[in-house]
Amino acid sequence: MAAAAAAVPGPGPGPAEAAAPGEEAAGAGPQGPSPARLARLPLARVKALVKADPDVTLASQEAVFVLARATELFVETIAKDAYVYAQQGKRKTLQRKDLGMGACSVLALAKGCCNGGFFHLSGGAEIIMDLFFLSPKMGEKNFYQRLQ
Amino acid sequence: MAERPEDLNLPNAVITRIIKEALPDGVNISKEARSAISRAASVFVLYATSCANNFAMKGKRKTLNAGDVLSAMEEMEFQRFVAPLKESLEVYRREQKGKKEARKDKDKKADSEEQDKSREEDNDDDDERMEEEEPNDEEEVDN
User: Fold this and answer.
1) Which region among A40-44, A142-146, B25-29, B100-104 has the lowest average model confidence (pLDDT)?
2) Is the dihedral of CA A77, A79, A80, A86 positive or negative?
3) CATH superfamily to which B1-76 belongs
4) b/e string for B86-107 if b means 16 or more Cβ within 10 A?
5) Which residues of A touch B15 (CB under 8 A)?
6) Residues in domain Transcription factor CBF/NF-Y/archaeal histone (chain A) (predicted)?
7) Chain segment B54-94, per-residue pLDDT in tens
8) Nearest to B46 among A38, A49, A136 (CB)
9) By CB distance 3.0 to 4.6 Å, which of A144, B15, B44, B48 could disulfide with A119?
């Protein structure tokens, strides 16, 4: 019964790991599933991802903030969807296999992404994630086309 | 060997915290699942950026703004994010405004104090001012 509750968060050694004090909601509002609060993800890291796109000239600070918040909502959504599948498997630990199927949001992401048919994929979350690391440079968008 | 964009990952600890808060108590997540979600999150940012950028270009703008990101969410079939995002944006704007005004007040105070007080005071004010200036309001992402 080694359902290793070893979800011990590793000491993630990111440089800008914790959200900078200035970015956390001072006295945040109601503690709901997605309270209207400030971002927990460090804006600097999100900005780095935005800059990775060669087509992007400038992004306002607000845009980066909204992206960070959206990403948090995205993570929450995936986690909750995955939980449903884990429950069906009578498990209390989410595993990678729970993600592929439950991630309809990820599929929508894969399928939809702007210009509809930007790329299409047939394998769910796993493929997106593997591709992410196959691409030599973030700038090369042709890795999307390789799929078609 | 392809360069792995390791530094484009989002911090593990924060991702883990977000996941845990979204789940009921007692539920855990395997390291692999967590890592997969983290990568998916990075990918999400990339796609959302690209999508938002299309809207900016349509509007003949060179700067991505918050509205573009919101439009991207709809385009990506994440309409249900739009309302909570708008709320968060309001909170953020208010806070930014608050910071700006606090800084203006501090500057005014610091100026008048500098004229009256001694060096020691100056040093204190300088320290305070440095902290205030770190979150650069006008800063934009520049390629």
Assistant:
1) A142-146
2) positive
3) Histone, subunit A (1.10.20.10)
4) ebbbebbeebeeeeeeeeeeee
5) 75
6) 39-99
7) 999 999 999 999 999 999 999 887 888 999 999 999 999 99
8) A49
9) A144
Other beta carbons less than 10 A from residue B130's beta carbon:
9
A132 interaction partners in chain B (CB closer than 8 Å): 5, 39, 42-43
Closest-CA distance of chain B to residue A1, Å: 15
Which of B3, B15, B35 should be substituted to probe chain A, the one whose Cβ sees the most A Cβ atoms within 10 Å?
A: B15
| A75 closest CB neighbour out of B37, B64, B96 | B37
What distance lies between CA A66 and its chain's CA centroid? Answer: 13
CB B51 within 8 A of CB B75: yes
Residues B88, A36: C-beta atoms closer than 8 Å: yes
Tokens in use for B71?
């439009």
**pLDDT tens column, A105-146:** 444 444 444 333 333 333 344 445 444 443 333 333 433 433
Residues of B with CB below 8 A from A6's CB? Answer: 28, 31
Q: Do B65 and A41 touch (CB under 8 A)?
A: no
Tokens of A120: 């299409």
